[in-house]
Amino acid sequence: MQAEARKRLIFALDVESRVAAEEWVRRLRGKVGIFKVGKQLFTRCGPDVVRMVQDHDGEVFLDLKFHDIPNTVAKAAVEACRLGVRMFNVHALGGRAMMTEAAQAVRECHAAGEGASPLLLGVTILTSADDQALREVGIDRPVAEMVPRLAALASSSGLDGVVASPREVGLIRHACGSDFTIVTPGVRPCFAESNDQQRIMTPAQAIEAGSDFLVVGRPIAAAADPVVAAQLIVEEMAAALAKD
Ligand SMILES: O=C(O)c1cc(=O)[nH]c(=O)n1[C@@H]1O[C@H](COP(=O)(O)O)[C@@H](O)[C@H]1O
């Protein structure tokens, strides 16, 4: 069960240089399933950092949260496919046309033999946001209504899954069914700080709720012993998976 749990743990490489990223990959290779390359690292290092992870036999979640006009996002999606990443994301708030064109671009790129077939995920409502934050940008509906609504829109636009807080997994499963992939950041083991995350759950709670993949950054990176922290999270996930 630990091997299955490990495959589902994604470590966020939220660091400022290729050297630091490579150190983390060497340290956590075999201890986590996937490495997430996000905006900070990608802006600093570009696509080479994705290749660096792959050169270490690591799989990559490219977390650039594309949100633009449909044509631009579709073309960025093709580049993500060409990089051979395991998964990448767009903002579901970008809407149906944007998501549909991105999904089509992924299918065509793969069919033409130009790239891999990554999971295309829609970010619903960021795990750092709450109802008050939504009201401030003019969204009067609560998070608990917006997340399943955006997940259903992502699903009907041809996306493979969503990124959301583990707190909303049940609502998403109800709206989108069991085959839809749910990736959850906002995961905090009991030994870690919540930082800027608002809608959090423990690794066990996230797995019990039905998350497919857990994204964890600072609870591992800031731990006194990151390898031990990753292993504790894997053990907690494995115990929750064993209850199924
Ligand atoms: O798409 C994401 O990965 C993401 C979506 C979201 O709603 N919330 C969220 O925290 N993330 C990412 O997940 C990671 C969480 O990191 P920690 O809060 O350090 O565990 C960060 O790299 C975020 O960019």
Automatic annotation (TrEMBL):
The gene is pyrF. CDD domains: OMP_decarboxylase_like. It comes from the Bacteria. Keywords: Decarboxylase, Lyase, Pyrimidine biosynthesis. Homodimer. It comes from Syntrophotalea acetylenica. Residues 8-233 form the Orotidine 5'-phosphate decarboxylase domain. Substrate binds at residues 14, 36, 63-72, 127, 188, 197, 217-218. Its EC number is 4.1.1.23. Pathway: Pyrimidine metabolism; UMP biosynthesis via de novo pathway; UMP from orotate: step 2/2. This is Orotidine 5'-phosphate decarboxylase. GO terms for cellular component: cytosol.
